[in-house]
């Protein structure tokens, strides 16, 4: 019997998730440290144990060091069997050109390195995709699905709010962790993704984290950075304009725009007719 109220929608979804994971028997979880993949990793480890649950963190210049470090800490906190493995999406011309299918090429690179690990363990690759993700432009999901990956959170009926609520009830500190998509998501489609660009974005966001803006996006437009923070912090952003501009320009940008509309996750997809 679930420790949560069986009449609660979130509790029922958690019971379904645990049953699905038991049916899968052995899994390799793509583990980025975000709320979704962390929740999936924790529950899979709880249900299957370390012998049948391996979590893999894909490391590349598109993963912020801050997120990589948190994956390491979480794995230690939860006693996860974790592997770090390098991915090579930035060696792909298809990825670097940054068209609407960039995420497809990224997930292809991920599956290239995760599939052999899963095959060696007789396991299924699982990703922390939830129902809300299905509404956005996510070609990476198609790439992963075509390679045999499964989405247990979707199958169990979890949307983002339910993932966060179940995580809170289970005592996971990731329950309210801000979304932290890959650094390449800060680069508008059509602008080439390079290590230098990603490094500049990461440095600028780290500078803003240091100023107390934990949830922030630095959108990269060549020598211009557009800064987004949650709408309830836009007033503070504007009030500290000079300090923020100095910090971001110190990372190599020549011009800084403070976006008064606030943070909109995935808003660069609007250029594709999505979002």
Detail the topology: elements first, then pairings:
Layout: H1 9-24, E1 27-30, H2 35-48, E2 53-59, H3 65-78, E3 81-86, H4 93-96, H5 102-121, E4 124-126, H6 139-146, H7 152-156, H8 160-169, H9 195-210, E5 217-221, E6 224-228, H10 234-239, H11 241-249, E7 255-258
Which secondary-structure class do the elements indicate? alpha/beta
- H and E string: HEHEHEHHEHHHHEEHHE
**Tally of separate helices:** 11
- Total count of strands: 7
β-strand percent reads 5-15%
End-to-end Cα distance, whole Å, is 40 Å
Question: How large is the radius of gyration?
Answer: 19 Å
Amount of helix: 40-55%
Largest β sheet strand count, sense and barrel closure: 4 strands, parallel
Question: How would you state the average pLDDT, rounded?
Answer: 92
Major sheet: arrangement of strands: 3-2-1-4
Overall geometric form: globular
Poorly predicted runs of 5 or more residues: none
Characterization of this structure:
- The chain has 275 residues and is an alpha/beta fold.
- Helix content is 44%, strand content 12%.
Spell out the key features of this protein.
single chain, alpha/beta, three-stranded mixed sheet, 7 strands
